[in-house]
């Protein structure tokens, strides 16, 4: 893409390509943002659980929730899990991060995620590939989580169906699913969940409308 923005210097400069002023300004802004992020990561007050501490990878269909949405979903999961409850976040890392900011509360949480960058979270990280929905560690017993919150990475029935296998294996009963509004029928079919009034938002605006679905009386209505 850069080549299309290159200008040409005078022949006296041996036709050395030169960035246009617009492209140069855009590059400078990009590098400044990178430096600011790196500065935050090396500063003493850096929070490894803050949303955005691990950047989105669009090639993995990663789109983080807004801070408000992540907080709302995390709070809902804590209430639904109950005192001493266990929460599983399946392909929902920003909710996991918000839950870790509430570590003073009485619950435990783990993150099931394909992206191995999240292994920085130690024993709570479980590598997860939805293509192999039941390929889980031996210590992850069936029906051992009070609530499972899941956000399948792709808006396809195949992805939802396979992720649903994982959800049903993990949960004692309660399910909080976040996916596209166009998946409402499939969500009901595979998980028996109903759409909520609460509308989740992402830190970047997405073309597809997202919704939350549950199979219990939640605080999202």
Summarize the structure in words.
With 221 residues, the protein is α/β, with parallel strands linked by helices. The chain has helices spanning 21-42, 67-81, 93-100, 157-170, 184-191, and strands at 6-8, 17-19, 85-90, 107-113, 125-127, 145-150, 171-180, 194-195, 210-214. A 7-stranded mixed β-sheet has the order 5-4-3-6-7-9-8, sandwiched between helices. A two-stranded antiparallel ribbon has the order 1-2. β6, α4 and β7 (171-180) form a beta-alpha-beta unit. α2 packs across α3 and α4 (157-170) packs parallel to α5 (184-191). The longest helix is centred in the N-terminal third of the chain and has 22 residues, at 21-42.
Structure described in brief:
This protein is α/β, with parallel strands linked by helices and 221 residues long. It has 5 helices and 9 strands.
Q: Gap between N and C termini, in Å?
A: 46 Å
> What gyration radius follows from the Cα positions, in whole Å?
21 Å
- The SSE order reads EEHHEHEEEHEHEE
Strand order of the largest sheet: 5-4-3-6-7-9-8
Number of strands: 9
Structure annotation, total helices: 5
| Structural class by helix and strand composition | alpha/beta
Uncertain ranges: 1-13, 34-46
**Percentage of residues in DSSP E strands:** 15-25%
Backbone shape: globular
Mean pLDDT, nearest integer?
Answer: 81
Instruction: Give the biggest sheet.
Output: 7 strands, mixed
Helix content: 25-40%
Write the layout of secondary structure elements.
Blueprint lengths: L5 E3 L8 E3 L1 H22 L24 H15 L3 E6 L2 H8 L6 E7 L11 E3 L17 E6 L6 H14 E10 L3 H8 L2 E2 L14 E5 L7
């Amino acid at each position: 893409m850069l080549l299309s923005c290159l200008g040409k210097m005078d022949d006296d400069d041996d036709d050395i390509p030169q960035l246009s002023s617009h492209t140069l300004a855009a590059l400078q802004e990009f590098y400044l943002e990178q430096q600011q992020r790196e500065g935050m990561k090396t500063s003493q007050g850096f929070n490894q659980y803050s949303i955005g501490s691990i950047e989105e990878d669009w090639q993995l269909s990663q789109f983080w929730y807004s801070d408000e949405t992540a907080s709302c979903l995390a709070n809902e999961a804590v209430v639904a899990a109950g005192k001493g409850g266990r929460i599983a976040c399946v392909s929902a890392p920003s909710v996991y991060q918000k839950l870790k900011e509430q570590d003073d509360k009485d619950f435990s949480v783990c993150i099931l995620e394909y992206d191995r960058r999240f292994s920085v979270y130690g024993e709570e990280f479980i590598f997860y590939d939805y293509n192999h929905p039941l390929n889980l560690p031996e210590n992850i017993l069936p029906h051992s989580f009070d609530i499972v919150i899941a956000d399948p990475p792709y808006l396809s029935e195949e992805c939802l169906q396979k992720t649903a296998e994982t959800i049903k294996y993990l949960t004692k009963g309660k399910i909080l699913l976040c996916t596209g509004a166009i998946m409402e029928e499939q969500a009901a079919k595979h998980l028996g969940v109903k759409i909520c009034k609460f509308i989740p938002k992402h830190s970047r605006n997405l073309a597809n409308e997202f919704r939350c679905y549950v199979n219990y009386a939640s605080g999202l209505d």
